[in-house]
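Lab meeting prep.
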Amino acid sequence: MPNPNSEYARSDSESVLERWGVKYFHRLSGKLNKERENKALDASLFDDSIRHFLSVLITDYAAIIAFCIGAATTIPTVLVEWFYFDSLDFYAYIFLQLGVALLSLIIELTLLFWLGLKTVHSIACLSHSQPAESDPLLPGNDTVANLLARAALELPDPVIRYLGIDPLKYVSKPKLLIIGLLYKAKVILTSVAVKFLLTRMGGKLGLRSSFSWIAIPITGIWDAIVIYKVVREARLRIFGHSLVQYISQEILTQKVMDNLSTQAQEGAIRAIATMMVLAQNHHPNMLMLIYRFNSCFNLDQQGDYDDWPLFLALLEQLPAEERFFLLDLLCLAAAFDGHLSKMEKQELPKAFGDYTAVYMQRIEYLKNHLLNGELVAAQSLCQLNFRPDNQ
């Protein structure tokens, strides 16, 4: 069998911040393991309704704390505006305001990073994902802890080259550059802009008694939105990992693999690879899915796995049952990153044909179940049973 790691390449190594987040996850997971030894927590006891309720509760609680962090760290800049705008000369005031804003930003980011890591780990406790363990579902040296640390700290995922698949083949280089620059600058641009520009505008308009204080709730609301997005992405990764584990252990059995022709096995790799390309990202859920399937099949390594027209042509050559198997898998891969891109919406009907409405609805249901932590309901949509009705 080909070594699945032989076609793996990562664009960059772990950043210092990612390594710090991974170590923190390991420490939290060590404490959790001790609690589980004392039967203080057992994720297998959670059904969908309890898991969904707890994940929403944890998310809302984190958003409230994030609001308080953003509001509290904005107060110093407003007070500087309130007390020193008229009493200091312009350059002294700007120097003081920027210094206070920078210190507040450092405190704010430190607290938000801590909150993100704690919250994401709490969500992970609701699933069977173990952030401290090495992971057989990921190529190279990536682990669940790495995936969650990047989500919690809002770090971009590295560009992964696996089996010659280029998830960014349809994304222009100028667009990639702009996205990269905005990603790196967004924290400073959003936080400092709110803290400094609003208070400065309030001073210029002579509305310091009211307008400058708006920066406090606005920053709090922004931080709450940011932490909500962080936890949403983490939930997608955590529950996506659990779902890949389920597919690996319960669905992709030896009997299923023996019933698939070599063409269908190749089509399975192509189904996931083409969704990575049409989604225009390298979401770790998709990477886990394709890595697991490639580990099971004894295929000769070849290129063009991410060629959509070749996948469509291969579909036409397969018997009905194997074609439905690939369409089911295509449905899974499309839902695993939590949204449908414009290209996916345009191209998927070409594969689904007369069953477009059925499969598009299943994608929407599966996506929502993943985000809500409804693993049992999500598992029911991942049977890969060679029939379009999924029953």
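Slide two material, second protein:
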Amino acid sequence: MFLHVRKISSLAATTAALVTTVPYCLAQEVQLPFGTVQMDGDLPARSAIPGLFSQLDFQQATQAYLWALPLVAYAQWQKESVDKFGARTGDLVVYTTWKDKLGILTANATTPYILGFAELDKSGPLVIDMPAGPTAGGVGDFWQRAIVDMGQTGPDKGRGGRYLIIPPGAQAPANTQGYYVARSETNSVLLGFRVLEQDPAKAKAIVSQIKVYRYSERAHPAAGRFLTPGGTDWSGTQPDGMEYWQRLWEIIQREPVNERDRFYMAMLANLGVEKGKPFEPNTLQRKALQQGAAAGKLFAETNTFAKRFANVRHWPDRHWEYALFIADPSQRVANFDQLWERTAWFYEAVTDTKGMISTTPGLGQAYLGAYTDSGDAWLDGGKNYHLHIAPNPPAKQFWSLTVYDTATRRFVENARQKSDVSSREQLQKNADGSVDLYFGPQAPAGKESNWVQTVAGKHWFTYFRLYGPTEAYFDKNWKMSDIQPGD
């Protein structure tokens, strides 16, 4: 037993007096955020042990949920592509319509997407022929780290080129002359492109020239397959509950373990989600997984829609934030990997390339997100709002504003089947060239062209995208108002 003794020298203490301080280890109970723990001397009471292990498992599940968000998002999308569209490795799916893009997390509604998945452990080194033209995109691994950009922000700089993607652990072919060579750290990869050409015929011609084939078949590459969702309902949103862990278990069976993730894999193994073993969690593990998924989602929403990163606001006196706050597509900075910045972005969005965080005026894209109105209240689909966009938005190519449902992080599903406005449309402009936009269940009279319909009972958020952001964006000389409640 530990006892702190202090001798008292005073007139009142004619006899020795002892003042004792009872230490933590002798407390009968300990109050912690998750409840009261009964103690037995310097140890938890035996009766408290099951509850402490239950809490430990819950905390592990919560942290594993947040860690796995980018991996589960791609695994979900890949599964939907196979099950709903019949896609095979190397196939490209062309998403053109509002309905086809509806399943993509925070999709851009203005330009078409050409996206597909490849499994390098099955195909071996993969070749991608990228045509010349105004395109943006690249290849990313399943942790959503950019492997290589293609198009305007890639090494071909929009002139077109031939790319060679090497599987993890594999040797590069002896002759790689004429290729842009990049290596993946995961077996599964996403191939994603956007065509920025405004003319539909020219855009279609560019898409038709993209080729994906095995390096081993380079002498006589087979014609690639282009698919379309064709209006099929599908969802790239990470599933809830046990389905989240099922999807995670499925993908970790196929992927190598990165050194940086081994402790998380230990947490998952403790919960019955283990590489090389069946997914058969017991009753206590299932309880922890279900509670961890529910709490993890709340933490993810908080971390995404109320970001607490320093300097996350583009203008300090406005509510517009950098939606994508990852410093480098590797997700790595000097002394750590950006776990929380990664978690914020990949809960609400998918993919990350160098072009998406470009700091070169006139090149790449910029993403500003608004999650609250000017009074810092959540944006409510049953209320009316107004946004004033100052003249001359700093975009070399165009700008767009898209509205998303916070529950799904996908387009707001409204009766109009239109969730965005952009500078490529015929918008009503003010005399000085500024634009007023409106959001709400009903359009203000005569303002339909400048209105995005929201849905009562649902919260929403928005991205303001700048394609080819100019110097006025980076030096912040151009400024936009907050979203204001009211017409």
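Talking points for slide two:
The domain at 306-485 is CATH 2.60.120.600 (Jelly Rolls).
The chain has three domains: 4-44, 89-224, 306-485.
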